[in-house]
Specification:
By secondary structure, this protein is of the alpha/beta class. The protein is built from 17 helices and 18 strands. α16 packs antiparallel against α17. The site of flavin-adenine dinucleotide (FAD) has 39 residues, from α1, β2, β10, β17 and α15.
Length: 481
C-alpha cells in the first residue's frame, strides 16, 4: 500500500465545499490534501472546454448575500468577473411565459378560460388560509399558486426534474427553489411599483443581475484551487476513500483507491463533501443501508452543442414546462459571457434529468441529439443539421432528492458521522442540502476555520448554517439557475 504520509486535514471531494476548506486552511499554512474522484476538481461548478466552446454543468451564476465571501471572490478574480443580466422564460402550452411567473403575463398569454380558472383556484386557496404547515411539495405549491397553476406547470415540471411524485417531496426545498414564493406578493409588489410609477421590474424575490467569471463558472474554482495550491494544499484526482481507520472515537488514517493503487494517508481530521450515503457506508454501513431510500440523488445529463449560428434563444435560459418532454431547461452559454463560444458563433446546452440506467442514460451522444432534435422542434428552437460540436456531460448526483422523510434521515446520518470527533460531512452532497455554490464555499470556510481554532463545528450545525443562509438569500436573490 502506498504511504501518502500525514496531512493535517484530508478533504474528500474537490467541489466548491472541499475547495472552500482547502482555501481557508492553506491561507493559514495548514497541510491539506484534497481527494477527488474525477479527473479534475470543481464538482458541479466545473466548466468543460472544447476548443473555443465552453459549457458549465447547467449554466451557473454566482449570487450571494455573503459580503465577506463576495469580497474574497472579487479580489480573487478582479476584472475576470463579469456582471450579467438574467432573463428566463417557461415554455408551456406551445407559448412562452416570463419566469418568474408574473400575473399580468399569465393573464395575457393563458387561454382566457384557463386564466379565469387559474385565478379562481388561486383565490379559493387564499380564502382557505390553512394554518397547518404543508406536508409535501404538492401542498406547499397548491396553497401558494392554486391547483390549476400547480397542475399546469409546477406539478409536471417538478416531477420531471426530481423523478418523484410531488406529494412524496418535502416542502423544505421548495422555498429555496421556486422563484416566486407567493403570487399575492408579486401582485402587491407590482401594484406598489405601479402606484409609485416605478419601472415595473420583476419583484424583489428575483435577482436579475449576477456575477459570472468570463471563462465560465469553473474559472472561479480553478482560481480557488490555485490559491490553495500556492498555500501548500495538495490535490489528488481520480481517487476515492475505501475505508476509515479508527482509534477510539477518532479517524487516524484513511485508505484510498488511487490511480497508482491502494494508498493510506494519516490524518489530523477529515472534512468530507462526498455524497452523504457514500460516507455513511464507511462510517456505519448498516445505517447507510437503512437510510438509502431516503437519501438518493437525481442524475442529470447535459447535452452540449457547439453551433455555427450566432444566436439561438431570446433569453438566457428556458424552462421546459411540458411534462411529456424530457428536456428540463435550455441554456445559451454566451448570454452569460461572450467568451463561452467562438466569436460570431453560439451554443446550446440541454439539461435532461433522468434515472440511472434509463433510456436517456443509455443513449449515445449522437442518439441523444437525434432524440432532442424532436423536442427542440416542438419548442420552436431552430437547430442546424450538423452541429460542429456534440458532447454530453453527466452529473450522477445533480439533485439531492428531498423526500418527506429526508430531513429526519439526514439528521440521523449526520449525527452518526459526528460520533467521530474529527470527521465532518457538509456541502451539497455531504450535507444533503439543496444549496448554491456560495453556501458550499461558506460551509467549507467555516469547517476550515473550526479546525484551525481546534473546534470543528458538528456536521448538523454546518448544515443549519447553510440552510439559514439560503433561506435569507431566497428573499433577495432566489432560485437555482
Ligand atoms: C443544474 C444545476 C445548476 C446549478 N446552478 C447554480 C447556480 O447558478 N449558482 C450556484 O451558486 N450554484 C448552482 N448550482 C449548485 C452548485 O453546483 C452546488 O451548490 C455546488 O457545486 C456544491 O458544491 P459541493 O462541493 O458541495 O458539491 P459538488 O460540486 O457536487 O462537489 C462534490 C465533489 O465530490 C466529488 N466526489 C463525489 N464522490 C466522491 C468520492 N467517493 N470520492 C472523492 N470525491 C468524490 C465529486 O466528483 C465532486 O467533485 C447548480 C447545480 C446544478 C445541478
Amino acid at each position: 500500500m502506498i504511504d501518502l504520509g500525514h496531512h493535517d486535514v484530508l478533504i474528500l471531494g474537490g467541489g466548491p465545499a472541499g475547495l472552500g476548506a482547502a482555501w481557508e486552511l492553506a491561507e493559514a499554512g495548514a497541510r491539506a490534501l484534497v481527494v477527488e474522484r474525477e479527473e479534475d476538481t470543481g464538482g458541479l461548478c466545473r466548466t468543460h472546454a472544447r476548443g473555443d466552446y465552453r459549457f458549465d454543468m447547467g449554466g451557473h451564476r454566482f449570487i450571494t448575500a455573503d459580503r465577506e465571501l463576495l469580497d474574497r471572490v472579487v479580489a480573487l478574480l478582479g476584472d475576470e468577473l463579469l456582471l450579467s443580466e438574467r432573463t428566463s422564460e417557461v415554455a408551456l402550452l406551445g407559448r412562452r411565459f416570463k419566469y418568474p411567473l408574473e400575473p399580468g403575463d399569465l393573464a395575457r398569454k393563458l387561454p382566457p378560460r384557463l386564466a379565469a380558472r387559474a385565478l379562481a383556484s388561486y383565490l379559493r386557496q387564499r380564502l382557505r388560509r390553512d394554518p397547518s404547515p404543508p406536508r409535501s411539495f404538492e401542498e406547499w405549491a397548491t396553497r401558494r399558486f392554486g391547483r390549476v397553476l400547480y397542475e399546469l406547470f409546477l406539478g409536471p415540471y417538478t416531477e420531471k426534474v426530481w423523478g418523484v411524485a410531488p406529494r412524496e417531496l418535502s416542502p423544505e426545498w421548495a422555498s429555496q427553489r421556486i422563484s416566486v414564493t407567493d403570487l399575492g406578493e408579486v401582485a402587491r409588489t407590482l401594484l406598489r411599483r405601479a402606484l409609485r410609477r416605478e419601472d415595473p421590474a420583476p419583484p424583489r424575490t428575483y435577482a436579475r443581475s449576477f456575477l459570472y467569471p468570463r471563462l465560465g463558472m469553473g474559472q472561479l474554482f480553478e482560481a480557488i484551487r490555485e490559491r490553495a495550491l500556492e498555500g501548500g494544499a495538495e490535490v489528488l484526482c481520480g481517487a476515492t476513500p475505501a475505508a476509515l481507520v479508527r482509534e477510539g472515537d477518532r479517524v487516524s488514517a484513511v485508505e484510498l483507491n488511487t490511480p497508482q493503487g491502494p494508498a493510506r494517508v494519516r490524518v489530523g481530521a477529515v472534512l468530507s463533501t462526498i455524497p452523504l450515503p457514500a460516507l455513511l457506508e464507511l462510517v456505519e454501513p448498516e445505517l447507510a443501508r437503512t437510510l438509502a431510500p431516503s437519501l438518493h440523488f437525481r442524475p442529470v445529463r447535459f447535452l452540449n452543442l457547439g453551433l455555427r449560428a450566432a444566436r439561438v434563444l431570446p433569453t438566457t435560459w428556458r424552462y421546459v414546462g411540458e411534462g411529456e418532454l424530457r428536456a428540463g431547461r435550455l441554456q445559451e452559454p454566451n448570454k452569460r459571457s461572450p467568451a463561452m463560444a467562438p466569436p460570431g458563433r453560439s451554443s446550446l446546452m440541454i439539461e435532461i434529468p433522468h434515472a440511472a440506467g434509463d433510456r436517456i442514460d443509455r443513449l449515445s451522444d449522437a442518439e441523444l441529439l437525434a432524440y432532442m432534435r424532436g423536442e427542440l422542434a416542438r419548442l420552436d428552437v431552430p437547430l442546424e443539421d450538423a452541429p460542429p460540436l456534440v458532447f454530453s456531460v453527466r452529473a450522477p448526483e445533480a439533485y439531492p432528492v428531498h423526500l418527506r422523510e429526508t430531513p429526519a434521515a439526514r439528521e440521523r446520518a449526520l449525527r452518526a458521522v459526528d460520533q467521530l470527533t474529527n470527521l465532518r460531512s457538509y456541502g451539497r452532497q455531504g450535507g444533503f442540502r439543496f444549496i448554491f455554490s456560495d453556501a458550499a464555499l461558506r460551509m467549507g470556510i467555516e469547517a476550515g476555520r473550526g479546525w484551525l481554532a481546534d473546534s470543528l463545528p458538528p456536521s448538523v450545525e454546518l448544515a443549519r448554517i447553510a440552510s439559514a443562509r439560503t433561506l435569507t438569500e431566497v428573499r433577495s436573490v432566489v432560485g437555482e439557475s
